[in-house]
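Morning - S-adenosylmethionine inputs below, output right after.
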Amino acid sequence: MSCRVPHIDIIPKKDNSSDYLKKAHHFYEQSNFPKAYKYFVQYFESLNSISDVSPEDQGIFTGVVTKIATVLEETDDVEELLKCYLQTINLFPDNYFILNSLGAYMFKLGENDIAKKYLELALESHPYFLPVKRNLLHLSWNEMPRWHFRMMNDRLRNQAYDKAITSLISKGYKNAIDIGAGCGLLSLIASKNPEASVVAIEESKLLPECVKMY
Ligand SMILES: C[S@@+](CC[C@H](N)C(=O)[O-])C[C@H]1O[C@@H](n2cnc3c(N)ncnc32)[C@H](O)[C@@H]1O
């Protein structure tokens, strides 16, 4: 005769999720952010699904991470700071606020490619979040050759081109090809005349991107 014995898992006694959450809130109210962080993470890990976290709690947790990040950045604790950001992003991959902060931090460290990746993820998650647009713009400016700014701010040069191009188009030359268009300034001048057909060619992918950002 066989006897079926039910399988019993022995689970060590733990706080339940609401206890973790209560402790997280308690330490948050006491401005003890490292402990609030620890209990928030335990709370998230005790849930069946991370989607059970309320937007309010996610917002408070983001605030906690930001406070901790400020201190870690001031003390130059790169390793702990990255750990904290990455743990948060692993829990909440769409948290555009933290994605943006991590992107901005990587930019500060000079890791432009990694910065761009996180900033683009932040923008994907929230296309209207202005701080991320600003950071992407700073990143592009940083990658642009220095001489480009001097050239773009040379009023005499720009006015001379404006005069010459406008005069040609008014004489009936309506097809313009701007080879080496940069940010497209000369193309924009030519296209002031709605009858002009303008083609701009530029080898750099970055420069035309800057125009789109404006
Ligand atoms: C001196 S900038 C002039 C920019 C713009 N035309 C202006 O006047 O404001 C020259 C531009 O030509 C682009 N360029 C250079 N060689 C090129 C090529 N073979 N094909 C397309 N663009 C090129 C450079 O990337 C640079 O943006």
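Note: Residues 71 and 151 are 41 Å apart (CA to CA).

O.
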